[in-house]
Design a protein that fits this description.
This protein has about 160 residues and is α+β, with helices and mostly antiparallel strands. It is built from 4 helices and 5 strands; from the N terminus they run αββαβββαα. Helix 1 runs antiparallel to helix 3. About 20% of the residues are buried.
């Protein structure tokens, strides 16, 4: 299971870097769809043939799958299962935990192979880990600089009462 960590803020620069990495993975692994999900089941981004997929449900079910297998891992004395693979008649799912905080899902069919997907996911995971480390540093710097103030910080109880009265 993914450890308890605070939600992270996604900045445009890092979001673009993440999409570049997963678009490259989509091509190099010859996969159909790739999506990245946070530990709470929220979709971060998706690339590929997503038009006929309910990516919101896929994201939350994937996070649930990771949580369930995390429970199984603990029962047998493992910390977690960092990689899951589901084989279907037409499509396969390769699910992996990246940087201990996000879930990378690759959907592929017979045009690719598990070996190729695993190889390419390893490389992409390393690149994504660096991006998430940069994100954490940036968020920390923003917090120290006082720039991480909530957009709701200026709203008072009186403002809320006035809104609803």
């Amino acid at each position: 299971m993914l450890g308890p960590q605070s939600n992270f803020v996604m900045y445009d620069e890092e979001f673009k870097r993440i999409n570049t990495v997963i678009e490259k993975l989509l091509r190099e692994a010859n996969s159909k769809v790739i999506f990245l999900v946070d530990k709470n089941g929220q979709l971060i981004t998706a690339v590929g043939e997503t038009e006929h997929l309910d990516t919101t449900s896929l994201a939350s079910l994937t996070a649930g799958n990771i949580a369930a297998t995390g429970g199984l891992a603990k029962l047998i004395g493992e910390k977690e299962f960092s990689i899951l693979f589901h084989e279907g008649e037409k499509d396969n799912l390769h699910i992996s935990i990246v940087a201990s905080r996000v879930i990378l899902v690759v959907i592929f069919d017979s045009r690719s192979s598990l070996g190729l997907v695993r190889l390419r996911v390893k490389k992409a995971s390393d690149e994504l880990t660096v991006i998430f480390q940069d994100l954490a540093k940036k968020a920390e710097e923003m917090e120290k600089g006082g720039n991480a103030q909530s957009p709701f910080a200026e709203i008072t109880d009186d403002d809320i009462d006035n809104l609803f009265s």
